[in-house]
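Researcher: Here's a chain I'd like modeled. Treat it as a single chain, no partners, no ligands.
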Amino acid sequence: MIPPDYSNRKLYFKMRRIFLFILLSTLIVAKSYSQFTTDEITYGNRIDLENSNSWAIGGGITNFIMHGDLRSIGTSDDTNYWNFGAMVYIDKMFNPLLGLEAKLTYTQISGGAQYFNNDPDNHTPSYVNINNPNSDNFVRDLDNLFFEGRAIGAELNLIFSFTNLYQTNASKWHAAGYFGVGYHFYNSKLGERNRTDSPNGEVFFPDADFGSNPARNSVDNASSIYLSAQLGIKRRISKRVDLEFRTGMYFNYEDHLDAAITRKQDWETFFVTSIGLAVKLGKKKIFTIWGDENGGGNQFKIVDTDNDGVMDQLDIEPNTPAGVMVYGNGKAVDSDKDGLPDYKDKCPLKYGPISNQGCPLNTDADGDGIMDGEDLCPNTPGVVENKGCPKQDASAPTNVTQQIGLLAASIYFDTNSDRIKSISFGTIDKIINLMKKVPDVNFIIEGHTDNRNSDRYNLYLSQRRAASVRKYMINQGIPAERLESKGYGESRPKFSNENAGGRQLNRRVEIKPVGGLE
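Model: Modeled as a single isolated chain. Structure tokens:
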């Protein structure tokens, strides 16, 4: 119902416009964000909204600090006024980034003077009779002014997740901003301490004229709109309960929350700090703002049908026989490059036609003086010391380094971690066996990432992943001096980062031969 008083009617319509603006803005942004398409290859910590809880209720104790014409801290008599209260709220998250909150508050309000006499022209309260020596309401000493009362209010806040703006979902800590509008009623009253004409030393001014602000149409009760900007920090205690600390700055639209109206300022500010608990509602195991890498998130499941270390989505030959060595793309190894994979080739290390089951004919196709049966590169002229292949910068045989390089593409890690997935250890063991065949060759292990997260984070993650592979190889018997590790972050993509498949392939490890390590 619209208040009959004209000033309150204006206040009512102004509050309604602000409320509708915040609500409409929240719904529009939430709708836009919800159209985001989740990765098709890996979800990381991203939440499937249909499988997460989006409602929560909470409450806690509050402390109110006034900073207006009168204040709760830093008063003229060095008294600090501690104003405790309580709040309850209900939250609805539209997605991990945005939500809406409705909150009810109740608090004590009180404070004292802040050296009015330092600037009497601007700080003196503008009340009729309050400064008249002939009035019973005459103030003896402005520095002894104080106020007290209670306030009850309601507010609507837009929730904006700072944590999920940087990373998809948090795991233990979560920071969010709360920005909104509220409306509260209060019965603050003005008084003076240290009065000799009062038994308890305090005098209140019930007849003070608040006519300079017609919105306060009652001596004892008033109301106003306020705007708020708050910061909340949550610590997840369990899947159901969070501990929350929140602090905020509030802007009161009127100049009488502290029962004192002066020319010092038209708006009043106050601060509220709270600590409490939030309880997530619903039957799902996780709440929308929290991620869960160990289940509950809609994570991609790696399938490797032939157990060759290459997941089926990237495997060119997903049904190779058990135990067959494959390249990083899942294709069976063809060591002599004669078109017949080793497991079908009767002479796997000698080039030969398929018609001869991979064994060489007594010919020299490239004319380099090395018979095809002994020529590792039968169609490319080479030198004897390289077994028929051209000279290489690295001293390792071409087929061995190629196998190592291709196998390295099938090394996978846990999301946002340097922990090697168990499915990849078999691949690394194959690489180690190949390295042992060329003991005079040193290798560099390079780590790479896609372009998600910051440059600094990606560089650090790629360095850790490369070092993790190096550490495992050393533990398996490869001398440390033969291995170097280095991370390049997102600086050397091989595929487009515009789609999920390209990003998956850019998250890789490359192992290359080098002439030697210093």
